[in-house]
Amino acid sequence: MTARILRRPPRTTAPRTRPRLSLTGSLFVGYVLLLAAALVAVGSLWVFHLDRHTDRQYTERVLSVARAVAVMPAVVEGVQSRDPAAALDPTADRIASATDVEYLVIASPQGIRYTHPDKDRIGEMVSTPPGPAARGEEWTGVETGTQGRTVRAKVPVFSGGGSVNGGDARGEVVAYVSLGILSSDAATEARAAVPAVLGTVVVVLGLGVIGAWSLSRQVRTKTHGLEPADITALLESREALLHAVREGVLAVDAQGRLVFANPPARAMLGLPDGAEGRTLDELGASERVRDIVSGADRGRDLLLLSGDRILVANRRTVRIRGEETGAVVTFRDRTELDRLTGELDGARTVTRGLRAQTHEFANRMHTLAGLLDLGAHEEARAYLADLSAAHTRTSTGIAEHVADSAVAALVIAKSAQAAEIGVDLRISPMTEVPALDRGLRADALLVLGNLVDNALDAVAGGGRGWVELMVRLHRAGADGPPHDLLEIRVTDSGHGVADGIAEEIFRLGFTTKASRDAGGRGLGLALVKQVCEGRGGSVEMEAPDGEEGAVFTAYLPAAERASAGAPEGTGAAGEDR
């Protein structure tokens, strides 16, 4: 047996990652560095400006002293005496001592010194050429001489006195005055101000550090301690979530400006690109949309018609720290659901009609059985004949005018429903319905069912009322419409619609039915209007007199128009009576 030695793999330590500086830390360091750089630049410019100012000050000082010396009578007479050095040197020493200058030299135009702080250099040539002073011009600048680097001025002395600066110079140049101060003295004076500059910079930098720390703390509070990566991830997640949901999401701020609208909301409400930052009024939204978004129409699951869509809207107010900052509105598209509900209502209508027929059939069978039990055979035979004739007339009348089986079935069911509630449903002799295509049939059933139900509700319970139905397909032709057009007209003998609400009958949510039915009301005529306008047709109501009932007429083009969306303004379309 051989034994295997299992060796444990060497333990590897994960590389330690350096902790990244937080957002507030980065901002703090950035603010401090930026402030420090700015203060260094400002301090340097301050010192440079102070140095230049000191140089100008010293230059003006030596120039003014040199001008004063050049026009002194003792100097003018001394340079023209037999021994200029003996006459001028004591005077120059007194002036230099009184003005605290480094040196005062009086020399001939050729550069021979008459005075000098170092007596051994009297009578020698000057270390720097006279320059413009020998030609009768003043000069200032910095030169290096026997006393070192100095800020100096050279001013000519005229035989008749006067100066160039005063404009009263007389005679020829007989000498010039050279007066200077060591530049190191000027630099020393400039450097004396450096500690004050540095102290000011340090104080301002300290205040800036405190301000940067306070600002970084405020930023941390505003961002709830989130780092840039967290904020980016949160933003990306928000965008992905809001763009992934099928429901429309729309957000507005406290001023009613659009902040966000995901693609479903744009499609549902017909909002253009770049709508953010604009109000719903500027975007041309319907009054119904504005009422829901602004909160003027409060409630849950509010119905909204937008184009060919049936939307359900819910609004939530956004509050931050107890202050209202806007609102978020969600929209759900229930168009298909309502269409399926309409088809289900049609099926229920047929079921109710069949149940009514069954109930009526059972009553008639009981009547017939009673006649037979009583031995009234002739009466039973006549009763059967009448029933057969009535049924045949109803079925034959509908079959003669309505060739479409689905429409015929709905009319028969509505006839039975009308008979059950004591209403006479009449079929107009002008009714003529051929077999319809699937799309037109579905819309016709929805319109027909809602209009007939509306009329039956209007006349029910008011005595023996009646409803007349006319459905006719108008063929396109020279004398007819430009395309096949299905006309559905429902006339009732009910109480009619008052003139004051005739224009309101198609407004969303409007109903004249009892409050006990209000939960399921307010959408019938809205759907009719939506379907008609979605196909490029229309629906209208005639109310000539309250005692004459009402007439609803719907027009459905056989060919649905290319753009099924209704024009602007249909978003708040009507409701049933």
TrEMBL record:
Domain of life: Bacteria
Entry-linked InterPro entries: HATPase_C_sf (IPR036890), HATPase_dom (IPR003594), His_kinase_dom (IPR005467), PAS (IPR000014), PAS-like_dom_sf (IPR035965), sCache_3 (IPR033463), Sensor-like_sf (IPR029151), Sig_transdc_His_kin-like_C (IPR004358)
Membrane topology: Multi-pass membrane protein
Chief place of localization: membrane
Segments passing through the bilayer: 21-48
Catalytic activity: ATP + protein L-histidine = ADP + protein N-phospho-L-histidine
Enzyme Commission number(s) from the entry: 2.7.13.3
Localization: Cell membrane
Keywords, sorted A to Z: ATP-binding, Cell membrane, Kinase, Membrane, Nucleotide-binding, Phosphoprotein, Transferase, Transmembrane, Transmembrane helix, Two-component regulatory system
Domain PAS span(s) in chain numbering: 234-271
EC category name: transferase
Chain ranges of the Histidine kinase domain: 447-560
Gene Ontology MF annotations: kinase activity
One Pfam family recorded for the sequence: PAS_8
Gene3D superfamilies per the UniProt record, alphabetical: 1.10.287.130, Histidine kinase-like ATPase, C-terminal domain, PAS domain
Protein name: histidine kinase
Provenance organism: Nocardiopsis changdeensis
